[in-house]
Write a structure and sequence with these properties.
mainly beta, 2 domains, 14 strands, elongated
């Protein structure tokens, strides 16, 4: 038998769980500077239920404690208070709850952790999000402004079916972030990666993993400001797409004042697709492109003072 209580607008079901969780958890590492609550947000983008009216639910464990079920409510933005803990490092494991929507992680956000940042720091995100087709605004702003987040698991975001604005601003202004996840989708959607890592000042290298940015079918604003003002960024993944669409690369690397190399697969180049994409990058880098592709020099093409390598 379970006991149902409430934390603000979030229903909490406490009780034993039969069997084992059927999906991998998302694992969060928090550091408490002093004793206090670990608080998550839910109802991101006003979403507490999926399009079929099924509420988001999560089975959550802190530091190996028994699982507790938390369920979204009708509140547009509510909080999940996991309890009060001593100062130090704590591990939160979040599992899909029985009866939850397929994309069960979607309803969570971390705005509450940011507001409590004077003593609560989110430092690491591991595990795997559901490998399901995404929907518009799916993870919009999910970790926005988590200034102490340093590491995100390489396999965290396995989805290959994108949706409009699905990852927009997801890690924007995570100024301590160093490690980023792979993004395996080969066909993109409008604004899907827009500002995803913008102003992440400590990202230095986005390694050219085979799966990192393999997209060959682009969409309007898909990479818009993706790495805007990532001032530590030195090397970036290859961009293999042969054709462009409106604003697909606009301001993608603008303000990346340490950037040293770019490699594109474009067989033709449109300035309107890449407006200011390399504004304020330094001179002296290397730009690699197909031999027959003509790309102008300037902030919307090949950076001034860069060496061009034709392949």
């Amino acid at each position: 038998m379970s006991l149902i209580t409430n934390y603000g607008s979030v229903a909490v079901v406490r009780g034993s769980k039969g069997g084992k969780p059927t999906e991998q958890p998302v694992i969060l590492t928090f550091v408490l500077k002093s004793a206090g609550s670990i608080v998550l947000g839910c109802g991101a983008m006003g979403t507490t239920k999926n399009s079929y009216g099924v509420p988001y639910k999560w089975d959550i464990s802190v530091d190996g404690s028994p699982l507790t079920t938390y369920e979204g409510s009708s509140s547009p933005v509510a909080t999940v208070d996991l309890g009060t803990f001593s100062a130090g490092t704590h591990t939160v494991r979040i599992f899909k709850s029985a009866g939850a929507p397929t994309n069960w992680i979607r309803g969570l956000s971390f705005y509450a952790a940011i507001k409590l940042g004077s003593y609560l720091e989110l430092t690491k995100v591991e595990g795997v999000f559901p490998n399901v087709p995404l929907v518009a605004n799916c993870y919009y702003n999910m970790f926005y402004g988590c200034e102490n987040l340093t590491s995100v698991g390489r396999d965290l975001l396995p989805a290959t079916t994108m949706a409009d604005s699905c990852y927009m601003n997801m890690f924007s202004k995570c100024t301590a972030l160093v490690k980023v996840p792979e993004l395996p989708a080969t066909a993109l959607a409008t604004s899907c990666y827009e500002s995803m890592f913008s102003e992440c000042e400590n990202i230095t290298r986005v390694l050219s993993f085979v799966l990192f940015l393999p997209a060959t079918v682009l969409a309007n604003r898909c990479y818009y400001r993706m790495f805007y003002k990532c001032i530590g960024l030195i090397n970036v993944p290859d961009l293999p797409a042969t054709s462009q669409v409106t604003s697909c690369y606009t301001e993608m690397f603008s303000g990346c004042t340490s950037l040293q190399s770019i490699r594109v697969g474009a067989t033709e180049w449109s300035i309107t697709s890449a407006q200011n994409w390399v504004k304020d990058v330094p001179t002296g880098g290397t730009f690699t492109k197909p031999n027959r592709t003509t790309i102008p020099t300037g902030v919307s093409g090949i950076p001034s003072g860069w060496t061009v390598v034709n392949v």
